[in-house]
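Reminder: ligand-aware prediction takes two inputs, not one.
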Amino acid sequence: MSAVMTVATTPFDGQKPGTSGLRKKVKVFQQANYLENFVQAIFDSIGGPGGGDITDKTLVLGGDGRYHNRAACQTILKMAAANGFAKVMVGRSGILSTPAASCVIRKYQTFGGIILSASHNPGGPDEDFGIKYNIPAGGPAPEGVTEAIFARTKEIREYRILDAADVDIETNGSRTLGTMTVEVFDPVADYAALMGELFDFDAIRALFAGGFRMKFDAMHAVTGPYGTAILEGILGAPKGTVMNGVPLEDFGHGHPDPNLVHAHDLVEALFRADGPDFGAASDGDGDRNMILGREFYVTPSDSLAVLAANATLAPGYAKGLKGIARSMPTSAAPDRVAAALGIPAYETPTGWKFFGTLLDAGLATMCGEESFGTGSDHVREKDGLWAVLLWLNVLAKRGQSVAEIVRGHWAKYGRNYYSRHDYEGIETEAANGLMDALRKLSLKGRKLGAYTVAFNDDFAYTDPVDGSVSTKQGIRIVFEDGSRIVFRLSGTGTEGATLRVYIERYEPDPTKHDLDPQDALSDLITIAGELAEIEPWTGREQPTVIT
Ligand code: VG1
Ligand code: CO
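Here is what comes back for the chain with cobalt (II) ion:
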């Protein structure tokens, strides 16, 4: 027997969800009523108090497999049943990558979905957990929805949950929970089918059959099953192509962030003269990607630019792109491709939710962020494996190496030297003090080293489709030659504050395209440190992570 219980509760700490959902330590999520309050706040916000409007609706549910994933799935299933959902489609074993969730929400036209992930943050009993609601279009909830959820968390007094035994989510099939249907499905199949529609799988199969070798580092996170099924299964890459392919609750003590620091196994394999031709990694929930050639690293901004310039080589993009969108801190390399193609370029605040309206309205086809995020209008999330498959499609069609393709791209468009310096875990007050001091500066016309400031501001964005305005999205110092320094505080951390400093300089001269970015940007890096007084505010001489 199962019965709906209404549990009295008190408003929770009221913390605003950040760049992408709510992220906290597992221990915080394990507190009595914490997860429940947030889930009820979501249901109340999307269905109206009483949940009346969600009756007979279907919800998608799954996560990146980190610690607490399964337990949270059970709680959410019981709450969905008590709140009147007709059906929840849950990925087998609670597994569903962020882009696959977006794919399934769109394909089955569900009333959105709940994704359990703290993305690239470490997992385990003492590490991070997260939850986000994606809207029926398949993308992250826009600010209007997250604000409504946040407001609800401050007034919540009760939640509804079914008093029932756990449901089996380990095997495919339909079962019932109260009056609700729980459909457990293969988390890979729909996503793999979509990839098959977009890319020339025959050409990629032929590439592997011809001896081309790659390594895909799933970092013991959610893309293991996806990479194994698609790369080694459908595309015939040799067994062992996928590294760290079994999802683990603590990601094997790793930090599932696909960058040069954390994907060290992969970097080691690729940075040798006899290494594989191609390397890629994805993050905890499968929406990020890092791309490597043999002894060659492709920055995410360059990757977006190269993929956009070569997109028509893939069947799904053969008709060309409608526009390219990038987040403000991402380098301007994609803008140069857009200009050459005669299509619009859009500059949005950080976070994938800002691309949704552009993709829905057909204004942009491809989009990306400097933080290892690339994607297109095929779903409404960034998509790690999609980027890897598009690269494979381009490599198969062009018959050149990754390094040759990127160097050729720079020769044609010029090179945007780019780097991001992160100062993680600094004091929140110092971080805010540093940003406030920068905000007060008026630099127009000022000479800083060899550069003259064209303007400085705190980036504000008006969505061209729905007119919504987002302010305080990062401090920009833009120089007359187009070089830029950008400062922003992370919205995804769970401890203290993280200062991100983004530095960019354009170099048209092909004889100067072989510098180490840290050398090519050294004068701007010094200017950034002095201007923001990074060391006096933070006590840090060096950034924690450089990408
Ligand atoms: C970071 C990245 C941002 C990305 C966000 C979510 O946000 O900088 O570009 O959209 O993570 O990515 P922040 O606020 O910490 O800079 V994921 O893969 O964590 O969903
Ligand atoms: Co992610």
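Residues 191-413 form a domain with the Alpha-D-Glucose-1,6-Bisphosphate; Chain A, domain 3 fold (CATH 3.40.120.10). The longest helix spans residues 384-398. We will return to this case in the review session.
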